[in-house]
Specification:
By secondary structure, this protein is mainly α. The protein has nine helices and two strands.
Length: 249
């Protein structure tokens, strides 16, 4: 039996041709339309080779290790709860975000917190889908995160004249950019080495980092007090300087 799909054209009234002694199932031979035939003829060997390649790719795709299923299930629940609390925080700081003279850095903080939580939620939910490629999910979500960072920098650059200090206050985007860069890196490594569980563990760790970044940005969004070693040392130095000026001449 020929392995090529292309069958010679014959008039429709001719009887069915015999193939290896077998008569076609129809009493009248009707060849396939020309538009249905692959260009150059698609052989059975080519079909088998293509099927084997697709099967190899699907088998090599990294899936979520069994010991991480409970973690991603819990992280998806946590991300959903934090996104709900973020909406409450945005409603509390609504005037600071929507006023005409509102600082652009506050708006970027709100968007950065939402982006970090959505990144964690997306990776966690896709990791729970059976046979889902975790490496590709982490890579695509990281690329979308880089697009957000680029848009945030452009928005801060646009208001640099009216709000000159906003670009300096948006240094928190560096931490988010590093997180997305590591996530893209381990996503690529997971695609390249599908049978390694270390890359999946690192992606899970970066989900936790996204939680911490989003919580920190949400705290800054509502105007929570910031007490850090650097700010406290700076306050002490400033206080000693004022005592020196106010002291006896």
């Amino acid at each position: 039996m020929p392995t090529d799909w292309t069958i010679p054209r014959v008039p429709p009234s001719m009887p069915a041709p015999k193939l290896n002694g077998m008569v076609g199932w129809s009493s009248t031979y009707r060849p396939l339309p020309h538009a249905w035939r692959p260009a150059g003829g698609l052989t059975t060997a080519m079909i088998c080779r293509f099927t084997k390649c697709v099967r190899c790719v699907s088998n090599d795709a990294i899936v979520t290790p069994a010991d991480l299923h409970s973690f991603f299930a819990a992280s998806a629940s946590v991300a959903g709860a934090l996104i709900g609390l973020l909406f409450v925080a945005i409603s509390v700081a609504h005037e600071r975000l929507t006023a005409d003279n509102a600082a652009q850095a506050h708006r970027v903080r709100a968007s950065a917190a939402l982006t970090a939580f959505i990144n964690a939620l997306t990776v966690s939910l896709f990791a729970l889908i059976p046979e889902e490629d975790l490496g590709w999910v982490a890579l695509v979500v990281a690329v979308l995160g880089f697009l957000f960072i680029a848009a945030s920098l452009l928005s801060l650059r646009r208001v640099r004249r009216s709000q000159p200090g906003e670009l300096r206050d948006a240094l928190f985007l560096i931490g988010l950019a590093i997180t997305f860069g590591l996530q893209a890196l381990y996503g690529l490594l997971a695609i390249k080495h599908p049978h390694s569980s270390n890359d999946a563990d690192m992606i899970a760790t970066l989900v936790i980092v996204c939680f911490l970044i989003g919580i920190a940005r949400s705290w800054e969004l509502i105007g929570g007090p910031s007490i850090g070693m650097r700010s406290e040392l700076r306050a002490i130095v400033r206080a000693h300087g004022q005592e020196g000026h106010d002291g006896p001449a």
